[in-house]
Amino acid sequence: MTVPAVLRSRWTALVVLSTAMLMTILDGSIVTVAMPAIRDDLGFSPAGLSWTMNAYLIPLGGLLLLAGRLGDLVGRRRLFLTGTAVFTAASMLAGAATTSGLLIAARFLQGVGSALASAVVLGILVTLFTDTRERGVAIGVFSFTGAAGASLGQVLGGVLTDALSWHWIFFINLPIGLAAILLALPALPRDRGLGLASGADLAGALLVTSGLTLGVYTIVKVERYGWISAHTLGLGAVSVVLLAGFVVRQARAATPLMPLRILRSRNVSGAYLVQLLTLSAMFAFQVLVALYMQEVLGYGALGTGLAMLPAAVAIGVTSLLVSARLANRFGERFVLIAGLGLLVIAMAWLTSVPVHAEYVTDLLPAFVLIAGGGLVLPSLTGLGMSSARPDDAGVASGLFTTVQQVGMALGVAVLTTLAASRTADLRADGQDAAAALTGGYRLAFGVSTGLLVGALAVALLVLRRPRPASTDAATEPAATTVKA
Predict the structure, then answer these.
(1) Which positions of the chain have pLDDT values less than 50?
(2) 3-class SS letters over 349-361
(3) Which of 44, 75, 97, 239 is most buried (CB neighbours < 10 A)?
(4) Are 15 and 182 in contact (CB under 8 A)?
(5) Over the chain, what is the mean pLDDT?
């Protein structure tokens, strides 16, 4: 195979991986704007409607780490294709659903497929792009996909629901999924995997999957039960015990599901903590700003999505055109700190949003400053995957993505609960609905600012500028066979 053909194959693979991730990320946000239509058509109760999201998030958060390790053992290409096929088929079932039960079951299968596919994406990416500069560009493209998908989902959901019906927010995944599979077959490298005997830690798999699944379930049900209820505290404690048992098991197992040496790197463990804090604030930002514009300012679903497009464009431009260049020149730690600084300013700006806000003066500056996310996300990805070896890149990818999902779920649960509680208190004090809602969102934005300040402190105090890679590391034998 000629060198140009190899290069084309790698970049084609990046397009495939980004397209598949775009599809799953779209699905996470596209449903939110269609939920009223789904409720009216299928007769969901208010409590039951939340399961259109929960049924997707729970298997996604619970299976990522296990799926990442399975990718190392049976082959990341095979698991990616399987997950994409499951997700695409489940999307067809969701689009064709005529009852609430069928839709919830299909959404659960979508979560399973998404976990299988997305858990190994970064593992494939870092083994394909070993050159530092090329990897920086690839991670920038991948991060852009995530930012664009989250914002595009809200716009697309409004358009499809208004122009056709809510069924099409799921049917649209069929051509995307089929195209991703057909392109992936020749583009993704065939990896043999280590074999199940090299890491078939069944006890560890049971502990981590049950612990993560129970943890995500507890988080997404906080809005109903509250933080100090017996339900939340009891299930949360069980989840912590299960995950602690998993860590103990990994320290003693002959073939651990997740080698603990992945976390020994100061930069890797620090990047995970920064990511947890940052994603908690950023995903909540997306949800809370959308609610503020609709409930306080009176924007429609489509108008809200269009109003948030500048944020997606700002993140996209910085992740695609700026982040890799700055990282190559100044290092990922510097870029991460600069991006977090911009995010702190953006979120702090929103803590003073008025009841009758003007878009250009009160919201747009924050949406432009949110461009810091285009610096933060690629840098975190590079740091979080920096210790991955060819034989465990899948589990490292799964762990990184698990932290993302837990951070997003935790941020939304905490901040929406705080906003609702503050709103109720202000209403009890006699404020009108708009003023009370605004006060609740201001509090949530203030807490988000605090989370980002905490992330910035961790980046400054814990992370270190990575040392140049040694020649020994470059010649370390790989346990996973890859064919171009």
Answers:
(1) 1-7, 468-484
(2) HHCCCCCCCCHHH
(3) 75
(4) no
(5) 78
Phi, psi of 191 (to 5 degrees): -115, 135
- In this prediction, residue 345 carries a pLDDT of 94
pLDDT in tens, 404-426: 777 777 777 778 778 888 888 89
Annotation: CATH topology of 1-193: Growth Hormone; Chain: A; (1.20.1250)
Per-residue model confidence (pLDDT) at position 387: 63
Supply the pTM of this predicted model.
0.75
CB atoms closer than 10 angstroms to residue 240: 14
Q: Do domains 1-193 and 261-466 have the same CATH topology?
A: yes
Q: Where are the domains of the chain?
A: 1-193, 201-254, 261-466
Task: Report residue 291 as tokens.
Answer: 């609610």
User: Buried (b) or exposed (e) across 112-121, using 16+ Cβ within 10 A?
Assistant: bbbbbbbbbb
Closest residue by Cα to residue 243 from 200, 205, 201, 196: 205
Is it true that domain 261-466 has CATH number 2.60.40.420? no
Calculate the dihedral angle through the C-alpha atoms of 229, 234, 237, 241, rounding to the nearest 10 degrees: -170
- Cα separation of 214 and 192, whole Å? 32
CA 228 to CA 478: how far, in whole Å?
48
CA atoms within 13 A on the CB side of 194: 23
Bin 421: left if φ > 0, else alpha if -120 < ψ < 50, else beta.
alpha
